[in-house]
Structure formats: structure tokens, C-alpha cells
Specification:
The protein has about 350 residues and is α/β, with parallel strands linked by helices. The chain has helices spanning about 10-15, 25-30, 45-60, 85-90, 95-100, 125-140, 145-155, 205-210, 245-260, 275-295, 315-335; strands at about 5, 20-25, 35-40, 70-75, 105-110, 140-145, 160-175, 190-200, 210-215, 220-225, 235. The protein is globular. It starts with a strand and ends in a 21-residue tail after the last helix.
Amino acid sequence: MPLVAHTDLPTFARLKEEGEVILEVDRASHQDIREMHIGLLNIMPDAALEATERQFFRLVGACNQIAQFHVHPFTIDGLPRGEAAKAHIAKYYEPFEKIKQDGLDALIISGANVTHPHLPEEDFWQPLTEVFAWAKENVTSVLCSCLATHALIEYCYGIERTRLPAKRWGVYAHRLTTRTHPLVAEINTRFDVPHSRFNEIFQKDMEAKGLKVLAASPEAGVHLAVSPDGFRIVFFQGHPEYDDISLLKEYKREVLRYHRGEVDEYPPFPVNYFTPEAQRIFSDYRQHVIAARETGGSLDEFPENQVLEMIDNTWRDTARAVFDNWLGKVYQLTNQDRRLPFMDGIDPNNPLGL
């Protein structure tokens, strides 16, 4: 069922322009269908703030459950923000205090950029753990993406992520490690997921703490796992929410950082992402960038428009299916009062009855 535009957040208009079904509040109020209230804790940096909104809103809105989805974006202190992002947040985001007062049926926590070697050293660590602590007691299920996965696993289970020798960057094939869990019902047993990270929590460490791994890749490691109870926390190490051009934008950013002298090594291609023709175009551009950096000459425009038609999205259908399964189960388990996590008779330590 569709998203409800319960505020004038620009993301609603943008998604409507892209063809998504968006209900106005007046129309939604006349449908005898249950509401679901989903929180989005968006802790991405300014440049990705609104894109992250759209990515997760899109996945929620694509779910085919009998519900109307009210998505409530909010953020936390401890994150550097420019004036434009501050204004956007002040106008469209809700305070965490209001989120706690009103309650949520489910919560999504985005990834984030970090500046310290250990997550508890980050300025946002304390506010983030306050959200974690509240959600564990009051929300039916919490879905974490990438950095949020690493932070919550460290906070809950004491596993610190490991720095990788090189950035895990690209689109990787994954297989289900179990086919019986409701979150992976009716999805492909082999599917792609984008990854973009310098750190990893390994499968053996997750399983030693009782986490259940549902999908993994020989090259990229665990993508999907759940807390020992099977549902209260869902962990993504990859980025199934990514748009088809998200890795392209990251590659462009890294190329421009090299040109400005912020890094010494030219970035490699994201794995399994660019076609051979796109790689040829970017290899030619690489020579131009290197020469421009060495001579101080002008830089030609990054050739992204030349490759847009060469980029395939091989992960969105599976991502939508997992979100569909997740919110379907939330719908079946959550209390009608969104301030309470479960309907009567549900065991919080085994909500799926597995």
C-alpha cells in the first residue's frame, strides 16, 4: 500500500514525480485501512541526506501490505551539519522526544560517515545509543543499515568491527544461508547487493553471539542477519536501498577527491558494477584527471552522463521483497497502540514463534 504524505517533506513530491503512489492525508483518512508508523533515523551526511530519505521511503512505499505507511524522519545530535541541512531538518524532521511520545511500529536506522577509529569515540555515539536503548524496549523491530549495524552489534553484543585491508566496494553476489526464515520467504536464493564500507563484522563473530545469519557472500561477507530472537533487530551490512547510480556518485566523489589532492591513490572501479564500455570511458578520463592534477590544468566534466544507460540495478527486487516480508511481519505482530511493541500473546523473546 502507498505512503501517506502526512507532511510537506519534499521527498514525497520527488517520489510522486518518479511514479510512486503517494496518498494525501485527506484521502488516506477515508480509507478503512490500518496505519503503520515507521521511523527513519537518518544519520547520513548532508550530501546524502535527502537521497537516503528517498531510498528508504521508496522501499517502504513499494511494500504490498494492507497498511498505510507514515514514515517519520528524525536525526540526532553529534553530526556536523551545514545550514541547508539544518534548515531541512528543522522544517521536516521530528524531534526524538516526539517520536518517543507518539511511538513507532518499526524503525529504520541509516548508515553514517565516521571520523574516529572506534565508534564509541564518535560525537553521535551517545545520542545513537539512547535511540537504540529506547527502540529495543518500545519498537517491534529495528532495521539497521551498514554503520548502524556495526554500531548496534557493538553496543548490544560487544563485537567491534574489523578494519578491512581495502574498501569493500561494489556489487556482490550473495546466497541465502537459510531458506526458512520469514524475512527471506519467496526471494531468490542467489541475489546481488551493493556494499560500500571499510569495516566488517564477520559471520563467525555474529554466530558466536547467537545472531542468525540469513544471507552472505564469499567475497563480501554477511549481508543479512537477525538478532537471536529472530526478528527484533534486522542487520544489513550491505546497502540494498542504494539507487542504481549510488555507486557511480561515490566513484565520482572519490575521483574528485584525488584531483583535489585529498588522497594519493586514484580510486579503483567498484567491483562488478561498470560494464566494460563504461570502464573504458572512465579509464580514458583517469588519464585526463592524472594529467590535470600534475600540471594544474583544467578538469573536463566527469563523464557520468555517458554511462547512465550502461548501469544495471540487479538488487532492487530482492530488497523490496525483504522489506515487504519485514513490514508484513511487523504488521502481524505490532500492537494497535504504536506506543506498545506487540499485540497480546506475542513472546518478545521469540516473536515469530520459530
